[in-house]
Amino acid sequence: MGSCPKCGKSRLFKSYLKQIEMCQKCGIKWVNVRADDGPAWASMLVSGHLLAPFFYLITFRLNMPDWLRTLSLVVIGVVICLIILPRIKGFFIALIWSTDAPTS
Questions:
Q1: How high is the pLDDT of residue 46?
Q2: pTM, two decimal places
């Protein structure tokens, strides 16, 4: 949800995907908890499944030119990825923190 997994009172990100160094409320350091490529992989996996109904609708139900069909699916896919990527990154950070995985 974009908040600190420990206290839930401060923001986890200072910008779109840049996480904070330390929580201002509970003092836990987040700079060493790195999600790396997991969130990008998971957001592409999830967005592909969310894109499937749009693919069906645009491909089989609407009569549109191929270039417009392709452009529409690309734009919808990118928007879905950009919307869910910070949420999945926050989930990965919380998951890494909750399992006491090494963070250095």
A1: 94
A2: 0.82
Task: Provide the sign of the torsion angle of the four alpha carbons 29, 34, 39, 40, taken in this order.
Answer: positive
Is 4 part of any domain? no
Six-digit token pair at 43? Answer: 């957001």
90 or 3: which leads in pLDDT: 90
The mean pLDDT value of the chain amounts to 87
Residue 72 pLDDT greater than 80, yes or no: yes
Does 79 fall in a domain? yes
End-to-end Cα spacing for the chain? 24
Residue 42 falls inside a structural domain: yes
Could you give the C-alpha distances from 5 to 13, 54, 88, 92, in angstroms and in order?
12, 33, 13, 11
- Structural domains of the chain, count: 1
Q: What is the mean pLDDT of residues 77-91?
A: 93
89: containing domain: 38-98
Residue 61 lies inside a defined structural domain of this protein: yes
In whole angstroms, give the CA distance from residue 29 to residue 26.
Answer: 9
